[in-house]
């Protein structure tokens, strides 16, 4: 089970863009390094990765991070900026069944924590049922009126 869903919400005078990435125990895709290697000749993926690395990570080495997280979080931030939202929220909704592999879920948690830790330049352990933020991440060349980024994680036990 995988997929992404984006919603807009308003509370008082604040606009939220909320992206939900649904997972069971499948990984967050290949790493940035693997995505670069799988690049086709006419693709602009190399330029896209370089731009995101510079804007989000200030040129920190992101080769070991999962490309699906990079793409999803960048998309959430860009949509929030496009909508002039105050907040961008990226939530991982994890479903757990009797068939789910706990080791794969632990690997996903580690990958998500590595991504966030690299972004904020400190060790992060995002627990189920928690929300982390606000994180100020410039989107594009402007640093004014940028949405604040939050990360969330939810686990649902499915019987």
UniProtKB/TrEMBL annotation:
This is DUF6946 domain-containing protein. Residues 9-100 form the DUF6946 domain. It comes from the Bacteria. It holds the Pfam family DUF6946.
